[in-house]
Design goal:
The chain is mainly alpha-helical. It has one domain. Helices cover 69% and strands 0% of the residues. The N and C termini lie far apart (63 Å).
Amino acid sequence: MTEPQATPPPLPTEPSRHSRDTSWVGAVVLIALGLIFLAQNLVGFAWGNWWALFIFIPAGFAFARAWQAYQAEGRLTRQSSGPLVGGLALTAIALILLFGLSWSLFWPVFLIIGGLAVLLGALGDRP
């Protein structure tokens, strides 16, 4: 009769490449928010719509995803242009809200972003 063999302990797993590549985004956002709130406390710098800063969080992740897709393919593709355009749209929304700008004045920005989406998609289809 043979004795059951002991199973070796599991090896510590290394964080996935995806989590390592995007973990810096959260750090940068936290640092930026801290600096903005510190400036607000120290010098009276104030934004009325400070909550709009949190829109930059998904925008930062969209830009990180676009960069990862670009690095993986080595060129601009639909996988990189989609998140890039999404990040641009979120950034535009955040800036309009943050600075209290008029939507009626800046709505053409979204036409420009839409045009960039179509252009980048067409360029990304080329071999």
